[in-house]
């Protein structure tokens, strides 16, 4: 939520931070702002709306905006409505200190009252503004003080989460950065440094990065960078290399990131399998997972698995539960991370807790992970973003290597999460003796065949677009699936509602007759997931029941299924595969259906209203 970016070095900072904002816009897009030190004074500009609104304001004055350091922000409102006034950066009373912030200052109301009593005046309704006034305090009392000392002193009073970048005319040749709970990455260029909420804002300038951890701060100056903890004790950190390219974070000829990322599903799956599938000519197939070698024995001793995540990652977890129970014969359960952490979970050192997150920064998932570790569980992460907080705080894990996912609606990450879960289940199943040589080989063979099968489904895009046109008039949808298809139904409904704002309910098909069937009439269509699997006949009965009540049915079924065409109004066919792998195929038409619906409705699919890509607040 919210993106921050800053640059200090030898180049003009403005175009660099504006590019950075564009890259970060998926994190929040209700207002944006920038502050720049031009060598004599700090200039700032803010605008409600997209980054483009800020740019058009700046374009009128850009000749004056020349400076070697700047900070900028794109906002997802928490405290105070989206407006020019509430946009970041926020300043102190004298306009001498400017702050951009991602996170929530939980005790801001008390701090604000105390600061007002001291004589500070506030311009915005945000929690962030208290930071600027807290950082102003030491300058008021002692005059000559380093900006980093003022920032560290101010942060001592703060409860909550922050990723901040600060500049000041009192100590101008630097950017001060600090983090607790909100992601911060530093870029190390040639006599230039950057700070950002994530690598997408940095990778255009440099691939060399340093991950700032919680309770760490940094001073970035044109020719040096110092890192320390919040008590100013120096810390040495290694410089890592980003392993992806700027082109991966661009649309590459597609109209939208979401569209591009749906079409990247097969390569995302190839990447998660790369070097990890063992397919010996003799003996059983298995999976090789370098990220869990260090905890292998502990993992094999686990008596149960608990999976925790949010949103799409949670639905991937629901598929994973079946994988672990069916193939590794180990009891598994799935919990929303936001519920798990407050549920007093019964877990101990015999539990393997798996946390799934594309961003690796989701606040609820991170706190659930911390809770599980506190209770002694082995914490494993299935994470896409390398170096993210969840990846770092997990005891071990599997990166899904899907590459950057920019569209707010998660698509290729889901597919690669299923790939990672399948690998982990296969590994556990083999090691625990639950998967035979023959089954192991069969699974590996079919996993390898999946990217090509996914491409076949994607080749039906034009047909799916026609179906989206046909169903465009409907405002409500029911998505039904059983067993492996139930999570897909939930995911399909989530995709539709988050980008097209159509009401959609995902339901376990067996539950339909316990309530939702009352909704069905000719205006309430059902998307029925009906691949040829062991529960196929059951979903056929559900379709009959819907047809008997004049409901329309759009089915997803297996190629060669002659029966379903006689029942459903429309059918999208997917190739035959093993039951466990059907979600990898059946989810694609649902992603495309949601995508085309939103485009046809003229909506911004990559930046749907009220949402942000990475939910770093509770
Ligand atoms: O980054 P994460 O996987 O932890 O994010 C979890 C959810 O916020 C995310 O999946 C969200 O539901 C997406 N908008 C779904 O498309």
TrEMBL record:
Residues 2-223 form the Glutamine amidotransferase type-2 domain. It catalyses: D-fructose 6-phosphate + L-glutamine = D-glucosamine 6-phosphate + L-glutamate. Residues 295-434, 467-608 form the SIS domain. The active site is at residues 2, 613. Keywords: Aminotransferase, Cytoplasm, Glutamine amidotransferase, Repeat, Transferase. It holds the Pfam family SIS. InterPro entries: GATase_2_dom, GFAT, GFAT_N, GlmS/AgaS_SIS, GlmS/FrlB_SIS, Ntn_hydrolases_N, SIS_dom, SIS_dom_sf. GO terms for cellular component: cytosol. It is found in: Cytoplasm. GO terms for biological process: amino sugar biosynthetic process; carbohydrate metabolic process; fructose 6-phosphate metabolic process; protein N-linked glycosylation; UDP-N-acetylglucosamine metabolic process. GO terms for molecular function: carbohydrate derivative binding; glutamine-fructose-6-phosphate transaminase (isomerizing) activity. Its EC number is 2.6.1.16. The keyword Nucleus does not apply. It comes from the Bacteria. HAMAP family: GlmS. Homodimer. PANTHER family: GLUCOSAMINE--FRUCTOSE-6-PHOSPHATE AMINOTRANSFERASE, ISOMERIZING, GLUTAMINE--FRUCTOSE-6-PHOSPHATE TRANSAMINASE (ISOMERIZING). NCBIfam families: glmS, PRK00331.1. Catalyzes the first step in hexosamine metabolism, converting fructose-6P into glucosamine-6P using glutamine as a nitrogen source. This is Glutamine--fructose-6-phosphate aminotransferase [isomerizing]. It comes from Candidatus Giovannonibacteria bacterium RIFCSPHIGHO2_01_FULL_45_23.
């Amino acid at each position: 939520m919210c993106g921050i970016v800053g640059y200090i070095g030898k180049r003009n900072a403005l175009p660099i931070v504006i590019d950075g904002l564009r890259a970060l816009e998926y994190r929040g897009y209700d207002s944006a702002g920038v502050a720049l030190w031009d060598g004599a004074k700090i200039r700032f500009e803010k605008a409600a709306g997209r980054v483009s609104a800020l740019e058009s304001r700046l374009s009128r004055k850009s000749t004056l905006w020349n400076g070697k350091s700047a900070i900028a922000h794109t906002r997802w409102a928490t405290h105070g409505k989206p407006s020019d006034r509430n946009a970041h950066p926020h300043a102190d009373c004298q306009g001498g200190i400017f702050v951009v912030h991602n996170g929530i200052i939980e005790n801001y109301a008390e701090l604000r009252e105390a600061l007002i009593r001291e004589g500070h005046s506030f311009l915005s309704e945000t929690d962030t503004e208290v930071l600027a006034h807290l950082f102003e305090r030491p300058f008021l009392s002692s005059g000559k003080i380093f900006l980093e000392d003022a920032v560290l002193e101010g942060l001592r009073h703060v409860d909550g989460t922050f990723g901040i970048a600060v500049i000041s005319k009192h100590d101008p040749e630097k950017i001060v950065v600090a983090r607790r709970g909100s992601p911060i990455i530093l870029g190390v260029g040639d006599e230039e440094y950057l700070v950002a909420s994530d690598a997408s804002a940095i990778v255009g300038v440099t691939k060399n990065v340093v991950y700032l951890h919680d309770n760490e701060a940094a001073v970035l100056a044109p020719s040096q960078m110092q890192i320390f903890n919040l008590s100013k004790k120096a810390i040495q950190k290694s410089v890592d290399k980003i392993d992806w390219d700027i082109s991966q974070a661009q649309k590459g000829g597609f109209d939208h990131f979401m569209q591009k990322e749906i079409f990247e599903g097969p390569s995302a799956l190839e990447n998660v399998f790369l070097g990890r599938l063992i397919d010996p000519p003799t003996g059983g197939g298995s999976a090789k997972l370098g990220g869990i070698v260090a905890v292998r024995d502990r993992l094999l001793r686990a008596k149960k698995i608990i999976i925790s995540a949010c949103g799409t990652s949670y639905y991937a977890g629901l598929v994973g539960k079946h994988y672990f129970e069916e193939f590794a014969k180990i009891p598994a359960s799935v919990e929303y991370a936001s519920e798990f952490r407050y549920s007093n979970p019964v877990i101990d050192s015999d539990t393997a807790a798996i946390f799934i997150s594309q961003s690796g920064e989701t606040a609820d998932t991170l706190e659930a992970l911390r809770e599980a570790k506190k209770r002694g569980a082995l914490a494993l992460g299935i994470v896409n973003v390398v170096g993210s907080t969840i990846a770092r705080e997990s005891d071990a894990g599997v990166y899904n290597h899907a590459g950057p996912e920019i569209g707010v609606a998660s698509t290729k990450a889901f597919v690669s999460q299923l790939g990672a879960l399948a690998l982990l289940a296969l590994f556990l199943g083999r090691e625990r003796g639950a998967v035979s040589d023959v089954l192991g080989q069969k699974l590996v063979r079919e996993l390898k065949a999946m990217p090509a099968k996914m491409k076949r489904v994607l080749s039906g895009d034009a047909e799916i677009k026609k179906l989206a046109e046909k169903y465009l008039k409907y405002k409500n949808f029911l998505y039904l699936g059983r067993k492996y298809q139930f999570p897909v139904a939930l995911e399909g409904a989530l995709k539709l509602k988050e980008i097209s704002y159509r009401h959609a309910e995902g339901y376990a098909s067996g539950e339909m007759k316990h309530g939702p069937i009352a909704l069905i009439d000719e205006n309430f269509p059902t998307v029925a997931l009906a691949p040829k699997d062991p529960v196929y006949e059951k979903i056929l009965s559900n379709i009959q029941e819907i047809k008997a009540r004049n409901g329309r049915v759009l089915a997803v079924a297996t190629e060669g299924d002659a029966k379903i065409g006689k029942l459903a109004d429309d059918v999208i066919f997917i190739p035959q595969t093993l039951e466990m792998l059907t979600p990898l195929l059946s989810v694609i038409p649902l992603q495309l259906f949601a995508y085309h619906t939103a485009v046809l409705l003229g909506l911004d699919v990559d930046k749907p209203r009220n949402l942000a890509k990475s939910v770093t607040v509770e």
